[in-house]
Amino acid sequence: MSLREALATKQSNKCIENKEIATSQIIGTRNDKKELSGSLPAVRSSNNPELNFLSKSHKSVIILLGPTGVGKTGVSILLATALNTEIISADSMQTYRHMDIGTAKPSKKELKEVKHHLIDILSPHESFSAGMFKKMATEIIDVLHRKGKIPIVAGGTGLYIKTLTKGLFEGPGADWALRDELSKKEKSFGKGYLYQYLKEIDPASANKINPNDTRRIIRALEVSLKGRKTISEFQNLLTAPQDYNFIKIGLLRDRKELYAIIERRVDSMIEKGILQETEKLLKMNPHKIPLQALGYKEMQLYLDGLISFEDAVRLLKKRTKMYAKRQFTWFKKEPDINWVDVTGIMDAKEIFTKVLNQVESPVEK
Does the 3-168+242-255+326-358 domain belong in CATH 3.40.1080.10? Predict the structure, then answer.
């Protein structure tokens, strides 16, 4: 059974359960959100075994993932509207207020249409982590389950999704002084110095990390130097994953098409004023984490007089494409993803229709 058929069956079953609801409220074209949510009410338990993926002990969680620019936002809103549910953002930078343009947050209209969680919850001077995400996301998921809703987790931060689905090891917290020291060593001794150091003290982790992924290399070294175990040893002590029925839907596109979308997105960010947004952000004494976000660090390079504005834009486009490639590589390692190729489809409704038709409902054995 496809996701479309399951939604249709759910709607039909709800009609039977609520005989007092007029047929005209259930069948027919819906032109506004109120009518749509009335025709597709919150998920309730059903005797239909084909709906187990929507009612498995009220523990189902839909995860919509994919690289930046692929089209997750529009589809997540349509899916949440159809299921009368809410969205939990799995984007590490959308948690910050005053960072709207560079993080491509949902528009005010979209945020009004569907309730979103973990967006605009932090001031720029605050820090956030995968562990904090898991704790907050789990609490929200449990609340939604108690309401009979199926939460949708949507975003492209692979670590957050992995933390939610597989658990999180209890390693030492961030030591920014140590991170700065390691970064200085990389600059002093040349690119690749830290990676070679990691190979010496934790070869297992080095084999899993891209030599160009400086951030993850520094974190692995930080854990090894501060903890009494290597990060690979900590990872073998993962906390137990949550007891949820995860339904993972991944969107993908042809690389050239995705890169063209990224180019247009960056141009749009420039037109909307990411430079001015960065200037305002820098006046807020921000934490180092938000300044790592794509867009802001490139604009800061320009504002600091290190590169021209044109070079900053070119660098942003290049880095965003590289980020999208890393996201896809990360997600390819995530098991049980229902991949939907949306190459050539730009309209969110058309993508949504393809997801409904293609994604099969996992039936409980």
Answer: no
Rounded CA-CA distance 155/153 in Å is: 7
Write the pLDDT tens digit of every residue in 310-328: 999 999 999 999 999 999 9
H or E segment and range at residue 284:
none
Ranges in the chain annotated CATH 1.10.20.140:
176-235
Residues of the chain within CATH 3.40.50.300 domain(s) are: 3-168+242-255+326-358
User: Which among 244, 249, 245 has a CA at the least distance from the CA of 356?
Assistant: 249
> Helix and strand tally (H, E) in the chain?
18, 6
> 178: exposed, middle or buried (C-beta count within 10 Å: 0-12, 13-18, 19+)?
middle
- What's the pTM value of the predicted model, to 2 decimals? 0.75
In CATH, the architecture of 176-235 is Orthogonal Bundle (1.10)
Query: Which 3 state secondary structure label does DSSP give 68?
Result: coil
pLDDT at 34 over 60: no
Residue 218: closest CA among 185, 240, 169, 188: 185
Edge to edge, what strands does the sheet with 60-65 contain?
Answer: 116-117, 87-89, 152-155, 60-65, 245-252, 337-341
Q: What is the pLDDT of residues 65-108, one digit of tens each?
A: 999 999 999 999 999 999 999 999 999 999 999 999 999 999 99
